[in-house]
TrEMBL record:
Keywords: DNA recombination, DNA-binding
Annotated protein name in UniProt: Tyr recombinase domain-containing protein
InterPro entries: DNA_brk_join_enz, Integrase-like_cat_sf, Integrase_recombinase_N
Organism of provenance: Pelagerythrobacter marinus
Coiled coil: none
UniProt-listed SUPFAM superfamilies: DNA breaking-rejoining enzymes
Keyword DNA-binding listed: yes
Keyword DNA-binding appears in the UniProt entry: yes
Length: 375
């Protein structure tokens, strides 16, 4: 065995996490350190990488598939193997298969890096994962019409029930606009919550959302294809979003939603996400496999119903077009869609939801009082 292959697991993780050629957010780094803790606690910090075999990797996987959700917070003084053994003994519900596989994907990524750096000859954990009983298509579902009706008749949306003759004036702009932007524009929760005033601009005379990454102010996007331009839907214009934008610009503040506090990782969406989960339950709209992300599924279904072609829909939603996230050669040709085409496509997004009719230029029938809930 050459000296370069006498690296221990602990040393391997240290080198990987401090590699200057990689850029990771603080949150991502912590996720990798969590995986490191599991691997090292199962196999031993001083174990040589060269001695790690396929069955060792299966031991790690077996530990992961028995760990309960949030095990580190619930049992901070116990090791992962001890927690897994306790969970098996007491019949505790394990973490979701997708989370377990996420751990294995991160570990496999570290091992691939070792191979590229010629610090290991092979990756013994490649391809190891647990079977996920939930198909990808069913992991998140769109909100039903009934759920949307309950969501948009709750207290944050009082302005929809009682709009002034000239404009909407919601008392809590973020709780009012963030869900509406997601529903009518397909933007992800964090893409909306992190918006600054320069993320809305006129392009060819059309008001548009500019979704982009900006490390200087902590703005992040999920993938390269997430950076995009999305025209502001006419419903959002009717809802007074552009009025709110002008107020924020004139105030001198840079953030669109200054009431959203940042979490320790700098995300503006974290606390909003917790509030919205509570709100779904309070509104009577909480169902299995639906969450804020369901707005994006609603948006995609509405684009289909409106006859928007797939490639144009993907451009609006920031979808890559492949599960691996890779870009096809065809995607590299041309300069993209003109704003007029994007605007036409976004205008086809519509919902047969009574509570939303004031935003769609339609008269609203009476909304049942039973849908209203207290915050």
């Amino acid at each position: 065995m050459s000296d370069q292959h006498r690296i221990t697991l602990a040393e391997a993780w240290d080198r990987y996490l401090t590699d200057p050629s990689s850029t990771r957010t603080h949150k991502t780094t912590l996720a990798y350190e969590t995986v490191r803790n599991v691997v090292v606690s199962v196999l031993g910090a001083e174990t040589l990488v060269a001695d790690v075999g396929r069955q060792d990797c299966r031991r790690v996987l077996d530990t992961l598939r028995h760990l309960p959700p949030n095990y580190g917070k619930k049992w901070p003084d116990m090791t992962p193997p001890a927690i897994a053994a306790m969970a098996v003994r007491d019949g505790l519900r394990p973490m979701a298969a997708a989370n377990c596989n996420g751990y294995m994907t991160r570990w496999a990524g570290m091992m691939n890096w070792l191979v590229k750096e010629e610090l290991a000859d092979r990756n013994p954990c490649v391809g190891l994962r647990v079977a996920d009983p939930v198909p990808v298509r069913d992991k998140r579902r769109p909100f039903s019409t009934g759920q949307l009706q309950r969501i948009f008749t709750g207290p944050p949306f009082e302005a929809l029930r009682n709009p002034t003759t000239t404009r909407f004036n919601p008392p809590c702009p973020s709780r009012f606009y963030v869900p509406l932007i997601a529903l009518f524009s397909g933007l992800r929760q964090n893409e909306i919550c992190q918006q600054t005033t320069d993320d809305i601009a006129d392009i060819d005379g059309v008001p548009c959302f500019i979704v982009k990454s900006d490390p200087t102010c902590g703005k992040r996007v999920k993938t390269a294809s997430s950076e995009r331009v999305v025209p502001v839907h006419p419903a959002l214009v009717r809802a007074g979003l552009l009025d709110h934008h002008r107020k924020r610009c004139s105030s001198g503040g840079s953030r669109m939603w200054p009431d959203l506090a940042l979490d320790r990782f700098g995300y503006a969406s974290a606390y909003f996400s917790k509030w919205f989960a509570r709100y779904l339950a309070q509104a009577g709209a909480k169902l299995d496999r639906t969450s804020f992300h369901s707005f994006r599924h609603c948006f995609r279904d509405s684009l289909r119903a409106g006859g928007v072609e797939r490639e144009l829909a993907f451009a609006l939603g920031g979808w890559s077009g492949s599960r691996s996230g890779t870009v096809s050669i065809g995607d590299l040709y041309g300069s993209g869609y003109p704003i007029a085409a994007l605007q036409d496509a976004i205008s086809r997004v519509s919902y047969d939801v009574d509570a939303l009719r004031p935003l769609l230029g339609e008269s609203s029938s009476s909304t049942p009082d039973s849908c209203a809930t207290s915050d």
